[in-house]
Every structure is written in structure tokens, then in C-alpha cells.
Write a structure and sequence with these properties.
This protein is of the alpha/beta class. The protein has a domain at 101-175: Periplasmic binding protein-like II (D-Maltodextrin-Binding Protein, domain 2). The protein has helices spanning 11-26, 39-42, 59-66, 120-129, 142-150, 161-166, 198-204, 210-226, 265-290, and strands spanning 3-7, 31-35, 72-76, 88-93, 101-105, 114-116, 134-136, 156-160, 173-175, 190-195, 234-239, 242-248, 255-261. The strands form three sheets. The protein has a five-stranded mixed beta sheet, with helices on both faces. α8 crosses α9 (265-290).
Length: 294
Amino acid sequence: MAITIGTRGSKLALAQTETVIKKLAKLDIPAEQVIITTEGDASTQVPLHAIGGQGVFVRALDDAILDGRIDCAVHSMKDIPAYRPSGLFTAAVLKRDSPADYIAHLRSIEGVRVIGTSSTRRRAQLLRHDPEIVVKDLRGNVDTRLRKLNAGEYDAIILAEAGLTRLGLRVPGERFPPEKFVPSPNQGTIAVVSRADPSLMEVLSALDHPETRTDVLIERAVMEQLGGGCFTPLGIYSRGGHLVAEVLSLDGRRTERIDADITSIEQAREQGRILKDRARDLIEEAYRQLGIAQ
């Protein structure tokens, strides 16, 4: 019997799921996809922080696993919240693609003044780089965002470089260095989440990339200490055990940052606690300014 894999219906989500299905096929493991609509897909005109943050892309798929409609689900791992329902397990973390943000623009970069993004992190980092930039909210899938760019609604838009690569898209623009524009934790990584069934977990574990799993677990350990989800502008990036993490004010004028070599998850948690202590005022301020209860 084929493994049933839940996915969102966007082109990017389908491409990511197809990647997983092809990898399973090489292991002679049949799989089929089931498309499930999430609240994040249905509410594209509302900022993410107003409808519950990054978890809105995950909840419906979690529910489908737990009630037995699907065996597992494929996610962009950056969409998976820090705190997970009982009974679920991240069975596989695929080798990471580019973690970087990409600024897509059709005019000279010197002429870019209006940039589209719905991310509080990207907004803050852009404003830190140039306080004169106008950042306008932008939701929707990759096609929708590129269409709005082509229609002239924005001079530029910010996308995850990995998403463009997975869709086979070549778009004028440039890559932001992840050490300077620190990405969302786990950006560029595909995860397969399953119910806690040992036989299913064993099958899916064949797709796991240990080095990537170590890096993303370091990032998630820091994220869990910081909290904040997509409400607080924060970036966390680990590569080969070197960790860079930062928390910004919403206007990008203030930043708290750590830069450290990490050899264990406990060290990552300790760095997260240190950063949270330094950035406590910024985190509380973001919640207050966005009108969100902590």
C-alpha cells in the first residue's frame, strides 16, 4: 500500500512533495499525495501575524495525520512552529537547499524604493539596511508575488532562494548573504512529519540528511528559547555548528545578535537564553506594537 503524503496545494508545496515522492520511489516505496487546504492558504489578504503566525500552514496537515487521513506531510521546515502536538514526529529532514533570501527586481537595484514582503524579519532587516525604503505587505504564493512585481506594484520583492530553485525559476535579482540578512530558522529545508508509528518512521528516515538535521535542530533550540514565531523579527542560521542569530526591533533600528560555535543542543539553548535576555525589550515591544497578547 502506498504512503499517503499530505501537502498544501501551492506549486511550491507540490514541487516539494514531488521531490519526496521521487526519493521514495528510488527506494521502491510507493507514495501518493493528498492536497489539504490550510488557513494560511485561504487567508491570503491578511498579514500572517494577524491569523496566528507560521503555524497556520501546518495545523490542518497536523490534524489530518492525527486523525488518520494521511500518513505524513511535507513542509517547508521554517513553517513548523516550535511547539508540536503530541503524537507527531519529524521523520526526515532533507538536505538543505539555499537558506538565503533573494531580492527579485526588474529595475536597477539603485532605483528600488518600494519592496514587498509580509515578513516582520525581512521588513526589519531591509529597514536596517536602508531606513528610506518603503516596505509594503505582500502575501500569496510565488506566482502571485511575481505577478505583482511584474505589474509594477512593487519595485522589488523578497523571496526564499530555495523556493525559486525548487520551482525551476530564474528571476532577475540577487542573493542576500545569510550571515548579514540572517534567514528564518530552518529556511531552505524540507521536512517530512509523520505520526509516531515506528514502522512508518523507519521507512521515512531513509530520506534524512544528518548534517542538515543537526543544523536545523540547533536553530530550533534557539528559536524555542526566544519564542516570538513570526511576530518578532528574528533570524537564526547554523552551518556546520557555527550559529548566527539576531532579534531586531520592528523598525530595524535596534538589533541584538550572537555569533558562536555550537557543539551541542544544550549549548544552542544556552545561546538562545542569552539572546532572549538581551533582546527581551525588543520581543515585548514587537508583541505590544502588533497588538498580540503574549
